[in-house]
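Weekly modeling sync, notes
Attendees: S.R. (lead), two postdocs, one rotation student

Agenda item 3: backlog of single-chain predictions. S.R. asked that every request posted to the team notebook include the full sequence so nobody has to chase files. The rotation student volunteered to paste the first one in as an example of the format we agreed on. Action items at the bottom.

Example entry:
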Amino acid sequence: MMMYKGYVGKVEFDAEAHLFHGEVGGIRDVVTFQGKSVAELERAFKDSVDDYLAFCCQRGEGPEKPCSGQFVVRITPELHRSVAMLADASGKSLNAWVAEQLKSAIAEMHTARSKVVASKTHRKHHAVSKSVVGHLSCRMQPA
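Predicted structure, as returned to the notebook:
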């Protein structure tokens, strides 16, 4: 992901075209960019955001702001009551309690991802080590 002026760029790589494709996320308007290198992609992302802001200005419209910090969550009355009681019991407002829970969930997700990456790296290293040891032991066998 890339950030510029509060906008987030999501990027994918097209292996067939040898090209990075990106789109500005968090807004309803479609703003895309592409590049053949990381430097070209970053420049295209910034240019696309700047072009989007200029286009909105020319039309006399305000650009969409990515993620205002407010959102509506539709839940059952029972869940609402339970969450409100938990927030109250912890001495926090409902908003503060929910924000804390969301932050905690994101932290757990990042921790889990880190463990998966570390596990994959370990397995890859272990497979390479086994291969090297097997190769060496074959070479050490008497002829």
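Discussion: group reviewed the output briefly. Residues 36 and 62 are 31 Å apart (CA to CA).
Action items: rotation student to repeat for the remaining queue; S.R. to check formatting next week.
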